[in-house]
Amino acid sequence: MLVDVLAPGLLPGDVPTRLQDGVTLALSVLIESLPFVALGVVLSILVQVWVPPGLLERWMPRRAWARRAVLSLLGMVIPVCECGNVPFARGLLMRGFTVPETLTFLIAAPIVNPIVIITTHQAFGFSDGILVARLLGGYAVANLIGWLYSRHPSPDALLTDRFRDACLIVADEPGGRGRRSLAQFIVELRAVMPALVIGSALAGAVQVLVPRDALLAIGSNPVLSIVAMMTLAIVVAICSNVDAFFALSFASTFTPGSLVAFLVTGPLVDVKMIALLRTTFTTRALVGIVAIVLLFSFALGAAVNLLV
Question: What distance in Å separates the CA atoms of residue 246 and residue 236, rounded to the nearest whole number?
Answer without folding.
Answer: 10
